């Protein structure tokens, strides 16, 4: 295996110049590109460091936090994302295991730079950036482990597995495909030692999941499940061409058919590539698959394509003649990310001015936004003002439900942002932007009021009225008033059929207590009529609603059969 010292001595100027040029480009891009939707959300992670978050493990929050200690604004969010790509590239070059000739160096940077997602995660802060670094470290540790299972390599293997899983849960797939490529690992007790070491390092995150009711597992494995849509499937396939670069992806397919795995390490690379493609292609049958979820295979892609290009003159010429010119298009795309001069708008264009305009309207009044985490995250980043995202029955929970910022607004006046004009909202225009806002005084949070129901003995018949015994729990640390002066809370029942069509039915509740003390519960009867056109299997939720606000779920979904 080629040492870093040889790289730095033999071709140090070329390699270092290209590496530093890559870093400088990413720093410029990081500083002058507006914050992305998810990046703003992850920036809030960094303001509230924890051992876990609703959507992801904690590494992305830590990476952003470290950058904000050095710089403000977008550069602070992205600085360490750009920095950690340097060891990522060094590790991949080391894993190519070739003499550090000029040809090898140019081929490496050309292929790596041509992969759109490798470029993107050099300046966009997301869990994928640190995951790529630690996945590369895991491959380095695995290569060393199968050559010599020493104590140091055992510990490095366990450490890299833990760091990868602290970055993104897709690391489980990465590890799994490597194990599938070499089942003899399961007969090596030293591999189990590395796994136990990884679990020990992961124990704080596991404890966080336990203490918070396993929100990440529930969301990723169950709540995201949907139905097969042909357009989603076709979009996924098309996006794979875009996120990897169709020319580079074509080179990869050529290598997969042309080249036989030379050893266990190359066999692992093939399993990673095929495994990720097959797994996420099949995942389309459960719902929408984000195109970047296959990003981890880009490591194996670069290693295999460069290895083959070094011994295959035909592929080497293809890389120079076709892949290298495509870098110009990628540079043009990066230029337009910074400069908002095209009619096509993305999440990186125009939102800063919009959020600052909204701040001028709202001033320092807390803001409440419905059914989205991106806009409130960007508002909090640019306006540096308090905001809460309230998710309803037609949306999912987010990290905002764990933070519970709305608790900080209790008894205060808040501004509620609507997506369009309604009879209670006032239209405000500022700097060419329109905002529909409703002022609500004496705000009372209500999403954490929980309802327990027993439907075992209840018959659900279309056209009839159901009387459902319920018990209501106040999980807040303060009194909750169902007849609140500005935010009285009413009940609804929402049905959802297999086609994801939501149907809302009004409900009335006879409660024995109107004002619940902290951690107090009360019993009642919930009455509602089932429309005559309802029939079949439904998911049902009991929901709460306040004027000018949305329905939030007070129960988990209940499976019912309407006859």
Can you count the helices?
20
Give the overall shape, derived from the CA principal axes. globular
- Our Rg estimate from Cα atoms comes to 27 Å
- Please summarize the sheet with the most strands: 8 strands, antiparallel
How many strand elements? 15
Structural class: alpha+beta
How many structural domains does the protein architecture include? 3
Termini gap: 69 Å
Mean pLDDT: 92
Strand content: 15-25%
**In which range does the helix fraction lie?**
40-55%
Q: pLDDT under 50 segments (min length 5)?
A: none
Structure description:
By secondary structure, this protein is an alpha+beta fold. It folds into three domains: 4-205 and 226-338, no CATH class; 354-440, no CATH class; 449-562, Immunoglobulin-like. 51% of the residues lie in helices and 16% in strands. Strands 6, 7, 9, 10, 12, 13, 14 and 15 form an eight-stranded antiparallel beta sheet that branches. A five-stranded mixed beta sheet has the order 2-1-3-5-4. A two-stranded antiparallel sheet has the order 8-11. Helix 19 (374-383) links the parallel strand 1 and strand 2 (387-390). It is globular, with a radius of gyration of 27 Å. The model has no long low-confidence stretch (mean pLDDT 92).
SSE blueprint and pairings:
Elements: H1 4-10, H2 12-32, H3 37-47, H4 59-68, H5 73-96, H6 102-114, H7 116-120, H8 128-147, H9 151-167, H10 171-181, H11 189-211, H12 215-223, H13 230-244, H14 246-258, H15 264-283, H16 297-311, H17 313-338, H18 351-362, E1 367-370, H19 374-383, E2 387-390, H20 399-403, E3 414-418, E4 426-430, E5 433-440, E6 449-453, E7 465-474, E8 480-481, E9 490-496, E10 502-511, E11 515-516, E12 521-529, E13 536-545, E14 552-553, E15 558-562
Helix pairs in contact: 1-2, 2-5, 3-4, 3-19, 4-5, 5-8, 5-16, 6-16, 6-17, 8-9, 9-11, 10-15, 13-14, 14-16, 15-16, 16-17, 18-19
């Amino acid at each position: 295996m080629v040492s870093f010292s040889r790289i730095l001595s033999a071709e140090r100027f070329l390699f270092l110049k290209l590496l530093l040029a890559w870093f400088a480009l990413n720093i410029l891009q990081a500083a002058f590109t507006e914050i992305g939707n998810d990046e703003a959300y992850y920036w809030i992670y960094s303001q509230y460091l924890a051992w876990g978050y609703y959507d992801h493990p904690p590494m992305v929050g830590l990476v952003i936090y470290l950058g904000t200690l050095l710089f403000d604004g977008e550069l602070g969010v992205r600085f360490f994302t750009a920095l950690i790509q340097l060891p990522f590239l060094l590790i991949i070059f080391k894993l190519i295991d070739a003499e550090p000739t000029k040809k090898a160096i140019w081929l490496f940077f050309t292929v790596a730079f041509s992969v759109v997602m490798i470029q993107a995660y050099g300046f966009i802060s997301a869990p994928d950036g640190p995951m790529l670094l630690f996945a590369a470290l895991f491959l380095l540790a695995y290569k060393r482990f199968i050559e010599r299972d020493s104590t140091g390599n055992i510990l490095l293997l366990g450490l890299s597995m833990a760091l990868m899983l602290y970055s993104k849960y897709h690391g489980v797939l990465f590890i799994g495909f490597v194990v599938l490529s070499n089942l003899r690992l399961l007969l090596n007790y030293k591999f189990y030692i590395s796994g136990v070491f990884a679990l020990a390092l992961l124990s704080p995150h596991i404890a966080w999941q336990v203490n918070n009711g396993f929100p990440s597992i529930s969301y990723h494995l169950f709540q995201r499940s949907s139905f097969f849509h042909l357009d989603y499937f076709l979009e996924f396939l098309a996006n794979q061409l875009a996120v990897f670069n169709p020319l580079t992806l074509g080179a990869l397919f050529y290598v997969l058919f042309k080249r036989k795995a030379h050893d266990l390490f190359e066999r692992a690379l093939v399993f990673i590539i095929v495994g990720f493609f097959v797994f996420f292609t099949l995942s389309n049958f459960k719902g929408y698959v984000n195109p970047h979820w296959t990003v981890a295979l880009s490591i194996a892609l670069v290693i295999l394509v460069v290895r083959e290009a070094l011994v295959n003159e035909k592929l080497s010429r293809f890389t120079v003649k076709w892949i290298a010119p495509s870098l110009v298009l990628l540079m043009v795309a990066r230029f337009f990310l910074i400069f908002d001069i095209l009619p096509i708008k993305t999440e990186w264009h125009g939102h800063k001015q919009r959020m600052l305009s909204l701040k001028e309207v709202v001033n320092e009044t807390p803001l409440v936004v419905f059914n989205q985490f991106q806009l409130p995250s960007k508002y909090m980043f640019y306006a540096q003002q308090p905001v809460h995202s309230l998710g309803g029955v037609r949306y999912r929970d987010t990290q905002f439900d764990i933070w519970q910022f709305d608790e900080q607004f209790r008894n205060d006046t808040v501004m509620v942002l609507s997506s369009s004009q309604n009879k209670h909202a006032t239209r405000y225009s500022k700097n060419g932007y329109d905002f529909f806002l409703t002022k609500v005084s004496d705000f009372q949070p209500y999403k954490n009021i929980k309802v327990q129901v027993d439907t075992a003995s209840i018959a659900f018949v279309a056209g009839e009225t159901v009387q459902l015994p319920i018990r209501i729990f106040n999980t807040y640390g303060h009194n909750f008033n169902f007849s609140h002066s500005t935010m009285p809370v009413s009940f609804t029942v929402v049905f959802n059929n297999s086609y994801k069509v939501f149907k809302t039915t009004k409900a009335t509740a006879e409660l024995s207590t109107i004002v619940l003390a902290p951690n107090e519960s009360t019993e009642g009867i919930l009455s509602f009529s089932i429309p005559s056109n309802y029939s079949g299997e439904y998911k049902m939720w009991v929901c709460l609603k306040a004027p000018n606000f949305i329905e939030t779920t007070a129960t988990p979904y209940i499976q019912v059969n309407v006859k």
